[in-house]
Design goal:
The N and C termini lie far apart (about 50 Å). By secondary structure, the protein is mainly alpha-helical. The chain has two helices and two strands; from the N terminus they run ααββ. The chain is about 45% helix and about 5% strand.
């Protein structure tokens, strides 16, 4: 009985510790930050669409649709340092 209890505890502990869910901060509705995020995504969307179309062109006959709310920016950096206006986004 003790072995089963110990095994159950070990499995439960390993399952709970193996999931590392990243929670992204969500800006308040109708805030300036949300507005800038939406503007940034809207400006990037043609480039994202082109990249997705190029990636799936050999596999699909129609290009998949990308929705702005499905876009996640992993990284954005200035290419030439502080206050430069060339950016790299992933």
């Amino acid at each position: 009985m003790r072995k089963y209890l110990l095994l159950t505890f070990a499995l439960t502990y390993s399952i709970h510790t193996s999931y590392n869910i990243e929670v992204l901060p969500v800006p308040p509705e109708e805030s300036r930050e949300e507005l800038y995020h939406d503007l940034f995504i809207t400006l990037l969307l043609p480039y994202i669409d082109k990249g997705v179309e190029d990636y799936y062109s050999e596999l699909l006959t129609d290009s998949p649709i990308d929705y702005p709310y499905m876009v996640k920016v992993v990284s954005a950096e200035r290419n030439y340092g502080y206050r430069s206006f060339r950016f790299s986004a992933i």
